[in-house]
Amino acid sequence: MEFKHEVIFCIVNAGFSEAVMDAAREVGARGGTVLHASGTANTDAEKIFGITIQPEKDVVMILVSSEIRDKVLHALYESAGLKTEGQGIAFALPVQDVVGLTAFTPVEKPTQKSTQPTEPQE
Amino acid sequence: MEKKVRKRISPPRIPPVKPPVKPPVKKDKTLAPHKLMLLVTIVPRRKAEYYVDLIASFECNMQLSVTSFGTSGVFGLGYDIDKQTIFSVIRQDRVSEALAKLNEKFTTIRGGKGVAFTVPFTSMVGVSSYQFLSNKQ
């Protein structure tokens, strides 16, 4: 079953939601919603791996077309993945029906007319 | 004289046509259970309570309303970035009706523009939990 839209959830450390949105916008995403959350990390795992996990998290929810899903996920992995300061985890879920999305019509910049006279065509 | 007895030849008897026997109507509990879906609705915070009540009218027994923020690129221009995200569990047969109503409200209510979408459940556990979420006995 194919889905036209998918929703991407990206869980990052608090304060990195802007980085997530910037990365997503670069590859064609339009907007997202940020939810504040708290992580429940395993304290034993923290000791074993010698890392500290910041409990305050931001969950960024981005509704995208299925065509650009992979691009967005890849961009999030590069700019806000586990190897970055944001320590983000991103995943996508299929979306069956959507209402309320408006068609995006980019505003075209007025093109400057050339002042040079055109050569007459033969 | 012998009396000739004529035997009456009756036409061949056609057995009466029996009406087709209808298969017994299956009881509701033998039908496949309705699937559940997660309905995610992102609306302006001021209108959240209205939308929660609206969604509840579609046999939604459990809803979770979470404070959230829009990431619009036009900050500082009076654009309302304060949002509320409503996660609702809804039965699949009520989804189209609910989305149609939400779409109508998004376009008619001033300052009530939002987005709604559904994510299908793949599985769940617990009969009573299912009965509660689907509003079915």
**Briefly, what CATH class of the domain at 35-73 and 81-134 in chain B?**
Alpha Beta
What is the CATH fold-level name of chain A? Alpha-Beta Plaits
CATH architecture of the domain at 35-73 and 81-134 in chain B: 2-Layer Sandwich
Q: How would you spell out the order of helices and strands of chain A?
A: EHEHEHEE
**Percent range for helical residues of chain B?**
10-25%
Poorly predicted runs of chain A: 113-117
Estimate the helix proportion of chain A, in percent: 10-25%
Return the string of H and E elements of chain B.
Answer: EHEEHEH
Mean pLDDT level of chain B: 85
Distance between the amino and carboxyl termini of chain B:
85 Å
Structure description:
The complex is a heterodimer of chains A (122) and B (137). Chain A is α+β, with helices and mostly antiparallel strands and 122 residues long. Chain A has one domain (5-95): Alpha-Beta Plaits (2-Layer Sandwich). Chain A has three helices and five strands; from the N terminus they run E-H-E-H-E-H-E-E. Chain A has helices spanning 17-26, 43-49, 69-80; strands at residues 5-13, 32-38, 56-65, 89-95, 98-99. A four-stranded antiparallel β-sheet of chain A has the order 2-3-1-4, covered by helices on one side. The model of chain A is unreliable at 113-117 (pLDDT under 50). By secondary structure, chain B is α+β, with helices and mostly antiparallel strands. Chain B has a domain at 35-73 and 81-134: Alpha-Beta Plaits. In chain B, 23% of the residues lie in helices and 25% in strands. Chain B has helices at residues 48-56, 95-108, 127-134, and strands at residues 36-44, 62-70, 82-91, 115-120. A four-stranded antiparallel β-sheet of chain B has the order 2-3-1-4. The radius of gyration of chain B is 30 Å and the shape is elongated. The chains are: A alpha+beta (122), B alpha+beta (137). Chain A binds chain B through residues 5, 7, 17-18, 21, 25, 31-36, 60-61, 63, 93-101, and chain B through 37, 40, 42, 66-73, 83, 85, 95-96, 99-100, 102-103, 106, 113-120.
